[in-house]
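Input sequence (490 aa), recorded before submission:
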Amino acid sequence: MEDVRWPAEQLEEHRLEVSNRIRNLFWTVSGDYDIEFEPDTEKYVYSKQTVLYEAVKQGAFARYFDQKKLGMYLMKKIYFSAGEDMLLPLTGLCMDAAVNRFIIRERLGTKEIREQAFRELEKAEEEQVSDKAGTDLIHRIRLLYIRHVLENTDDKGMEPQAVRRIREYVELNYGKSYLSESEQVRVNRKFCTGIHKNCILYLTDGILQSPVIKNNQYRFSQLQFEKNKAYYGNNHWIIKRNISVLAESLKRAFIIRKDDFVSRSDAGQLVPERLWKIGRTDDDKLFNRKKRSDDSEFVIDVLIDSSGSQADRQAQVAAQGYIISEALSQAGIPHRVTGYCAFWGYTVLQRFRDYEDPRETNERIFQFRAYANNRDGLALKTVSSSLMERPEKNKILIVLSDGKPCDMSIQRPGTRQPKIYDGEKAAKDTAYEVRRARNQGIFVIGIFVGNEEELSVEKRIYGKDFAYIRNISNFSRMVGTFLRRQIDME
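Predicted structure, token format:
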């Protein structure tokens, strides 16, 4: 578009021309000339690039998303007393984050318009923000987002300062990592490849176990821990019964496997009844020898989806993980329990308990908190690899998830960007990692803890070896059935 800008006194004369130019930009991007769009010609006088980019953004959203659904959602929120002054600006930021990856790739000039628009917006927001306590929160949020975008206008290289800031932010949200720097480099080089290129793995015991400082995230996590424990208290008898049923089922299965079996031999304990064979037959197996099953040892990994889509059922998911862990502890089976989520390109693996930890450590599972996105394939890939390093012959991986692998993390300023991970490609990648683990000899069980509409994706990922548990009272029976079947098969 030609760079034409008129003084305020001349705007009225050229208002129609300006309006038509902006509408044409909107229609060109949206591809739909039947959509109505009313540009802000008044604002064009002092913030031309902002008005132009708003047309681009709205057009892109109309092209790639459902405007009517968003409109109905906003109307509903406002009807139920949501603050319009906060809701609408936040919606604009979300729209920008959603359309940016599409439109900049398809329309090269958009990147420059967006940058110029955000520089105009930065000046405007800085005038609204001060360090005074009464400063409007929405202006602070908008300014943080604007600066994030401007810091990320050149993503060809890595900016050490930006990388360090993001790392520090992850530490503040999830606690310190238990890996050394060299170990972190090694695991990222090994696992963050292909569709997970430029991702970063972050292994931690969680913010409540290893906080940098006791900040708001620490307090939120502590509050959720208390809610999870309260749910356990309110459902104590049901959960205890589930633990007991599952533990006893596993114990019976392992007792059968661990029983010594007796075979005839040419050495061992003499069987007098066979002495008559001496000199009369060629059978020299006059003894019995006890043999212990050499494949009775099992090790189990429990992997729990800790993404934001689990937010409505955090306490229930924590209880399910606790039931499994307590039952395995009572049955004497070494196991590890890990939560996973994805945040700003980091895939965070929170270790609630390790294989040889004492039973009391199971309480940490109630520190489960649902937050951010999830890269199921990368989590499975990483956990399966360490599980294969265990000496036990028989290995089982239990995955509690909602069947929606999705990492739509916003771009990280000053760093190389991971690929968006959602939809069909995310489901295929997760299914691939499940198949690969099974080919390595790991028995993988999917336990579905999501909404029924996502069930078809779960089936595609885990095949026949998944359980859909609608009621926690049936939890131990369903899980026990799958585990017993595997124990009996091995």
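Checked by second reader. The chain has 16 helices and ten strands.
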